[in-house]
Amino acid sequence: MRQTSRTQMNAGGTPRLAITPPQIVGPFYPVTERPDLAANLARPSGSADEARGQLLYVRGRVLTRSGEPVPHARIEIWQANAAGKYRHPSDTNPAPLDPNFRGFAQLTTDGAGRYAFRTIKPGRYSTPEGEMRPPHIHFTVEGRIDRLVTQLYFAGEPENQTDRWLNSLAQPERLIASLQAPPSHLEMGACVAQFDIVLPSG
Question: Whole-angstrom Cα distance, residue 114 to residue 43?
Fold first, then answer.
């Protein structure tokens, strides 16, 4: 399953893309951290070492409902490391931090609304209530008019079937992307996820 923007029709028969569903910010937004601006979470700025875990490239476009690109939209991304641990003082998960993974970055879409970043696939983790959350990446997207908070999930994860936040949606599959093999110019063993984001007005 490749995550794409679903198309609807308005009353006049004009195609309209379905707005990307919102999700919770969650308790681990990195309020005390500065985002990395290099769009490479797998290797923090100033480091020669890579983060541990499955290398992952995420790419997509930010669009309006009419399919127009949203240029210069600001995107923040944050996530757990490969062991399911956030770099956040409130995360009591006993899993170790990765010294080469900060898990917080900020990027901007180009003139065609495109974005891309390099990271590692986050690990699953248990909540304080004992629920197991599937691997996911948090997004905030700020366009000219709209602000969206959402999450990206990955196909084939068992916890997708039971996660209360994902399954609060009428169509949870709209936030689930398949992991694809990389093109030849990327590292062998990496995976690629396509995640288009649709804002109401841009």
Answer: 21
